Amino acid sequence: MDYPIYDDYIKLGDLLKNLDVISSGGQAKYYLPEHPVVIDGEAEIRRGRKIYPGMTLKIETLLLTTRQPTDEELMKRSAEIQEKQRVKAMVKQMNTKNFSAKKNKKTRNKSEQSPRFPGR
Q1: I need a labelling partner for 47 at 20 to 30 A (CA). Which of 18, 64, 69, 120 fits?
Q2: Alpha-carbon gap, residue 75 to 112, rounded angstroms
Q3: What is the pLDDT of residue 118?
Q4: Maximum Cα–Cα distance for the chain, whole Å?
């Protein structure tokens, strides 16, 4: 199986997480001593090991070769990142609008406020 690396490298723990071998990056600390990953013929238990394009990994029964992404994959990833940023900005704008509405709602005139009773 081929795996594209979009940056200069990816850390082993992040790679395991992206492949859904582990569910969080912290689990790599406990996973690797029990299930060593073979990188280019050498067993590796360091979760911070940098994986570069062209390396071959064996993770249990999975044989993986890392490579540079194609132009099509780069364009698709760029579109995904732009969409995430668009959604993030939209959510931020909505939250700011809702916060302002709640703030204005709390600052009513004294004549509009309900009467306060002593002891409550």
Answers
A1: 69
A2: 56
A3: 75
A4: 79
Distance CA 103, CA 51 (A): 50
Distance CA 24, CA 57 (A): 20
Extents of the domains making up the chain: 2-69, 71-104
* Phi then psi dihedrals of residue 17, to 5 deg: -65, -45
How close are the terminal C-alpha atoms of the chain, in Å? Answer: 68
User: What is the model's pTM?
Assistant: 0.69
* Residue 81 in this model has a pLDDT that exceeds 80: yes
- CB atoms closer than 10 angstroms to residue 96: 10
Q: Are strands 37-39 and 42-44 parallel, antiparallel or unpaired?
A: antiparallel
Helix (H, G, I), strand (E, B) or coil at 60: coil
Q: What is the pLDDT of residues 35-70, one digit of tens each?
A: 989 999 999 999 999 999 999 999 988 999 999 999
Average pLDDT score, the chain: 87
How far is residue 97 CA from its own chain's centroid? 27
CATH class of the domain whose range is 2-69: alpha beta
